[in-house]
Amino acid sequence: MAATDTQTKGRVRAPLAPWLKGTATTLLSICVTMLGLLFVTFIIGRVMPIDPVLAIVGERASQSTYDAVFLELGLDKPLLVQFGYYIWDVLHGDFGDSLLNARPVSEDIARVFPATMELATLGVLVGIFLGVPLGVIAAVRRGSWIDQIARVVALVGYSMPIFWLGLMGLLVFYGILGWVGGPGRLDIFYEDIVPARTGMILIDAALARDWDVFRNAFSHIVLPASLLGYYSLAYISRMTRSFMLEQLSSEYVTTARVKGLSERQVIWGHAFKNIRVQLITVIALSYANLLEGSVLTEIIFSWPGIGSYITTALLSADMNAVLGGTVVVGLIFICLNIFSDLLYRVFDPRSK
Amino acid sequence: MTVFTKMLSGAAMGLALAVTSGAAFAETPPNMLVIANRIDDITTLDPAESFEFAGSDVSRNIYQKLVNFDPANLDGGYQPEVAESWTVSDDGKTITFTIRDGLTFHSGNPVTAEDVEFSLQRAVILNKTPSFILTQFGFTADNAADTIKADGNTVTIVTDQPYATSFVLNCLTATIGGIVDKKTVMANEVDGDMGNEWLKTNSAGSGAYKLSSWKPNESVTLTSNPDFYLGAPAMKRVIVRHVQESASQRLLLERGDIDIARDLNPEDVKGAMAADDIRIHDEMRGRLMYISMNQKHPELSKPEVRQAIKHLIDYEGMQNSFLNGQYVIHQNFLPKTFLGAVDENPFDLNVAKAKELLAAAGVDGLELEVGVRESQDRIEIAQSMQNTFAQAGIKLNITVGTAKQVLGRYRARELDVYLGAWGPDYPDPHTNAGTFAYNPDNSDAANATGLLAWRNSWDTGGLTDVVGKTVIENDRAVRAKLYGEIQATFRDTSPFAVMFQKIEQAGVRDNVQNLNLGGATTAVSYWPVTK
Amino acid sequence: MTDMTLRQWLLTDAPTSRRHARLASFYKGWLSLRSNSMAMFGLGILVVLVLAAALAPLLAPHDPFAQDLANRLQPLGSEGHILGTDSLGRDILSRLIYGARITLYIVALVALIAPAAGLLVGTVAGYAGGWVDIVMMRITDIFLAFPRLVLALAFVAALGAGIENAVLAISLTAWPPYARMARAETLTIRSSDYINAVRLQGAGPIRIITKHIWPLCISSLIVRVTLDMAGIILAAAGLGFLGLGAQPPSPEWGAMISEGRRFILDHWWVATVPGLAIFTVSLAFNLLGDGLRDVLDPKEGGQ
To answer: How far apart are CA B322 and CA C108, in angstroms?
Structure first.
């Protein structure tokens, strides 16, 4: 019955309705997911055996100081009421103040997120520019030595503990060889020279045309970015290879070959063109993972990104910061997922 | 396709650039001091609220105090600073400070008696964590207007008991005694918070440096105050950068990207020493490493068991291995260099004796839980204890948690054994005596979570009264002797085994001179430093 | 019949019973896996790992907990300590061997919990459809949208550090992809003639899910689990590295790296040896998983 109802309504505004309905459903599901995400985080924060008041006042506070902060945080109210207040604030764009450094969480995130974004973007670029060609070549020359190398490179990437590789990389390339910059985003005397417009130092420096700062920032980011790039390379090249194999064994490729198209045209013009959408999904997923902030990489390279921000906040019971960070990361993840879903719907004939 | 080749060559160029660019400088600029340190404990820079190590390092260089320590003569105790001189009334309850002429705040405003009055009253009224350092003298939000008063160029404070003058003045050298610029602070007041919100991230002092920026978990940048009353500091800028790992700090130091590394572990100290242009700066600090035994535990409350455990710690072995150079054996609650500190360390690892004591107490097959916070040196101490305890048949289970987690259970009197550190809050012996050996009400209801004796449910066996008397003893020599006696009893009977005192080993580039980290009594001073 | 070898019996084209058919297909899969030398290499490493864990007391030259402060941080190849000693003078080789037990324990538990949970949620959601599907998939999405290590950290922080809690936390972050996969498979199987036939014979939903849908999901699940094992080991090591996994003095490999990283500049082997161990085992799981995928799931793999 319900189905006929919508159909009659649909007939009135036929061209708009499906599109509207799709958008509404998508938006609704984002909202529900976000709300759930917040609720789970909120509950985790409340059941954690770390006392947020103690986290603020420290171990030597008197009882009256403690009580004052307890009331200030609204911890005397029921859990659901606290959650309600929190959602209300978030809807007004207010993530609250960090319990520990008393600054607005949104300000903190605006500071740490670009750092992660810069690192993740560079990392995924490395992954794309090396991983995709590697995967394609491995597929075309299946079974050759290059395929074997690609396989080993990828499997090693899947298997290496990143914190160990990071420490070793730092030791070799910074400590012994001095080829790259050390931990942190810049050498200290380059700090605060270029105005922070995007928060991504490479871009800020380029905008200010300060190439010294740019070079220095680059020398700092290159190692952690290559490291993250290696991990996304492993994944992207593996996936590219299997997508390509599927295409290359299909009939139209044989037809194209029979028609006398050059190998280049067959591979890039036909087969590769057809895996673009799948590939973008894979890349989006890989990018989303990097944007979550690679906690361990950030810790080892003293990189002030969102991963280490959330972790530090978590371990010191700074729940506003944890919630804010989780919302941002979750939102990005969901958006990238929807983005790749949309791509599928638009480009992939099979899903229509 | 062409796009692809372009991108590929772009990536190749990027790699080439990375390889050639390298670290640009081998040295920091001559008028800039760059320090690597763990500064993630800074939560606020308001002197009325700041209470952590890294915070007091910053605060000491921004704010002046009525009386303060001279980095060139720490042993000389407190010296006049904002107060030129002071007098004490006959009943010992009133101290009158005369304010020095010609001091100015960074804003250009003169430092007046009114600012001093405001700063101290403000600290009492705000009632933040460190406020107990002042309120223990009987100041409250209600009586602050009467007990802390400015008059012309003098400020008078009236305490509720005739405390030892040295005790009161020592407390005023703590971070909370910092003098803030009343006009600037009140101009930034929001909702009657006396500028607390603003001062958390800004500075309004009269010291050698002013705050340029504080990025939490990243860096603190200070700029010199050219009008500082002792002369403009040589270092125009001081940057403290948060670097978590000791290995990273050492790499930065060896490559000349920083001047001072403050969190090197013993192995990295050894390695850094081997480098040509680096020296190690040793300084005895006030921090103690101790274990405590909860007196609610039926076995731990037996005196023989407490004695036995004090004999089951491999003090020597730890000092000479993984703690090498960074902790020395010290078994008393007053750190060396404090008034009344004593040097007796009677306990050593003696399994046979411990077994005897345990047998005498009728204890067999004891199993205990020790709470340790997540830090490698403490975890190693715990593991060493686990090893030695086992030799006398005590099974020690280690529970590692974040600092806040473990602390929460400790304060709730839930842990059998706690392994932790204690640093003095202010440079007077009462700071430690008043927590280790002072517990006027041992009931759960008292909830005196600030007192270590209470956290371990220890009624102090009469030491509470002695500590109370000692703090109002005005004869310095008598006071010192009394603290010696308290510590002798404490060593023997208390459920605390104080084990080590901290030595800070900073790795320093050779060209850095006149560095002082503050010893056991205060924090680092940047203004005398030259390069 | 009587002179038919076991091999012939297994390779027959005409199985005589259900069990016969299952064994035969299993054997064929094994043969094709055996021809994949990399996968066999991976399997070999894992067999060695299991043996090392089982025979740890016989293999380890020292007590993994015995401290010797006078003999700490001995280099590789030193007398009596082939892989050197750690900060408390414990033999690294012995700790490594005993640590294999912990690694296996983690891997086994997570491999049981996470896919089982995912399978349950996914198949139920896929089979039931309607609001059950919507609710379950929203929950899956919520967990999927969480930063993985952060979720694990939060749980360990909430439950307290320790190996069991680490396993729970990792399982909690690992189940959503399985649920999605199982749901997708269920959706394709649900409307097949085969399931319809079973339903017509009067089978209830529980019976259909457990007897008919689950077995069909298992093979792709196994592949996925094997490939995820490396990630699980690394996650457990990451928690250990952050001090939230196994508690001292337990010789968990991640915790060993964490302890050893302080000496990375002068005594690099203390962190490197367990690092290599983690790497080797992860690699073994990946090689095996890659091979299994070729056998069980030919359309996805790159055979």
So the answer is: 36
Q: Choose, out of B27, B28, B43, B197, the residue to mutate when testing the contact with A (most A CBs < 10 Å).
A: B43
What are the two backbone dihedrals, phi and then psi, of residue B151, each rounded to the nearest 5 degrees?
Answer: -150, 110
> For residue A321, how far is the Cα from the chain centroid?
18
- Residue in B with minimal Cα distance to A175: B251
- The dihedral over CA atoms of B89, B93, B94, B97, expressed in degrees to the nearest 10, equals 100
Q: What is the fold of A105-351?
A: MetI-like fold (1.10.3720)
How does pLDDT run across B408-453, given as a tens digit for each residue? 788 888 899 999 899 898 889 999 999 999 999 999 888 888 889 9
Question: Would you say residue B422 lies in a domain?
Answer: yes
CA dihedral (A78, A84, A86, A88) positive or negative: negative
What does the pLDDT look like over A11-28, one tens digit per residue? 444 455 666 777 777 778
Instruction: Compare C297 and C6 and report the one with higher pLDDT.
Output: C6
Q: Please indicate, yes or no, if residue B198 is contained in any of the structural domains.
A: no
Strands (E) across B207-339 are located at 209-215, 219-224, 237-242, 260-261, 278-293, 327-329
How much is the pTM?
A: 0.82
* Residue B155 structural domain: 64-187
Q: What are phi and psi of B182, to 5 degrees?
A: -55, -45
Q: Average pLDDT, whole number, for chain B?
A: 89
* Same-domain status, B13 and B118: no
Q: State the pairing for strand pair B417-422/B367-373.
A: parallel
Nearest Cα residue to A309 out of A114, A44, A73: A114
Q: Mean pLDDT throughout B400-409? A: 77
User: CA-CA distance, B131 to B93, in Å (whole number)?
Assistant: 20
**Is B481 found in the same domain as B413?**
yes
In terms of phi and psi (left: phi > 0; alpha: psi -120 to 50; beta: otherwise), the region of B268 is alpha
Q: What is the pLDDT of residue B452?
A: 92
What is the model's pLDDT at position B504?
Answer: 94
C-alpha to C-alpha distance for A160 and A154, rounded to whole angstroms? 10
Separation CA B335–CA B343 (nearest Å): 9
With bands split at pLDDT 50, 70 and 90, how would you rate the model's confidence at B297? Answer: very high
The total number of residues shown for chain C amounts to 303
- The pLDDT of residue B26 is 57
Total structural domains within chain B? 3
- Among residues B133, B153, B187, the one where a domain terminates is B187
Residue B110: is it exposed, middle or buried by C-beta count within 10 angstroms (0-12/13-18/19+)?
A: middle
Looking at beta carbons, which residues of chain B come within 8 Å of A124?
A: none
Which residue ranges make up each domain of chain A?
2-91, 105-351
pLDDT of residue C253: 86
Strand partners, B370: B398, B417
Q: Is C65 on the interface with B (CB under 8 A)?
A: yes
CB B210, CB B227: distance < 8 Å? no
The verdict on a CB contact (< 8 Å) between A329 and C147 is: yes
Instruction: For residue B314, tell me if it sits in a domain.
Output: yes
| Alpha carbon of B356: minimum distance to chain A alpha carbons (Å) | 37
Helix C163-190 to helix C148-159 angle (10° resolution) is: 130
The C-alpha atoms of residue A194 and residue B278 are separated, in whole angstroms, by: 32
Q: Where are the domains of chain C?
A: 36-56+82-301
Structure tokens at B362: 């009728």
Q: Across the interface, do A215 and B24 touch by the CB < 8 Å criterion?
A: yes
Element (H, E) at B400: strand B395-401
Residue B194 lies in a domain: no
pLDDT 10s digits, C102-158: 888 888 888 889 999 999 998 898 888 888 888 888 888 888 877 776 777 777 777
CATH topology for C36-56+82-301 is MetI-like fold (1.10.3720)
Calculate how close chain A gets to B101, using CA atoms only, in Å. Answer: 36
Name the pLDDT band for C302 (thresholds 50, 70, 90): very low
Chain C hits for A169, CB-CB cut-off 8 Å, are none
